[in-house]
């Protein structure tokens, strides 16, 4: 597995993770793994009342992401095939540490480690970092109804949580290369040069 390219794209809500992952997968002819979001039956309730629905929401995401990555191992990694994903499984702790409290958080963390500690880790993470205004514009542009209720304070805190998490991952997973993209100034959708510069990092990995 260590020689099979596994690329993850990460960042807060609205950063452009799925867009970039899809573009890279199309360029490199890699399969792309996309997280399930809108299919989560608790997401509308969560944005309306985080305290009541956080645990259900986070457990649904964890179980689905675990199943996706287990399937990815057998379908791709075991056959030496590279993969691009629009998330890193570690994001479950970023969100759950913000939304869960007390014993629920402790129980969740225990379940997380039991399920994920032996899953493959990415060789490269593209971390799209963007400020609140940029994220809000992108969230509004994609027009998901359930995101209309996102609390701006929650989103700002996620930005800070992601910064801390990427710093932690750099220590926890030293074999994973983390490449930070300035989502406020880098436009990988409209500017081909910006996109090709990002893609060049993966091509270096495959040499």
From TrEMBL:
Keyword line: Kinase, Transferase
InterPro entries from the UniProt entry: DCK/DGK, Deoxyribonucleoside_kinase, DNK_dom, P-loop_NTPase
Highest taxon above the source species: Bacteria
Stretch forming the signal peptide: none
A GO MF term: kinase activity
Entry annotated with the keyword NAD: no
Domain Deoxynucleoside kinase: 7-206
Classification via PANTHER family: DEOXYGUANOSINE KINASE, DEOXYNUCLEOSIDE KINASE
Name used for this protein in its record: Deoxynucleoside kinase
Species of the source: Paenibacillus dokdonensis
């Amino acid at each position: 597995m260590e020689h099979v390219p596994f690329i993850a794209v990460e960042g807060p809500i609205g950063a452009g993770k799925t867009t970039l992952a899809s573009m890279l997968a199309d360029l490199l002819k890699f399969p792309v793994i996309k997280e399930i979001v809108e299919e989560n039956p608790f997401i509308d309730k969560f944005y309306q009342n985080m305290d009541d629905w956080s645990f259900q929401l986070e457990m649904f995401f964890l179980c689905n992401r675990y199943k996706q990555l287990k399937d990815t191992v057998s379908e791709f990694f075991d056959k030496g095939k590279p993969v691009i994903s629009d998330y890193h499984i570690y994001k479950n702790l970023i969100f759950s540490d913000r939304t869960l409290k007390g014993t629920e958080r402790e129980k969740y963390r225990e379940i997380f480690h039991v399920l994920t500690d032996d899953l493959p880790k990415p060789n490269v993470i593209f971390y799209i970092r963007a400020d609140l205004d940029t994220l809000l514009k992108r969230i509004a542009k994609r027009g998901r109804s359930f995101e209309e209720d996102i609390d701006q304070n929650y989103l700002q805190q996620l930005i800070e949580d992601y910064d801390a998490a990427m710093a932690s991952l750099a220590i926890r997973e030293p074999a994973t290369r983390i490449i930070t993209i300035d989502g406020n100034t880098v436009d990988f959708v409209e500017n081909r040069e910006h996109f090709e510069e990002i893609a060049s990092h993966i091509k270096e990995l495959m040499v």
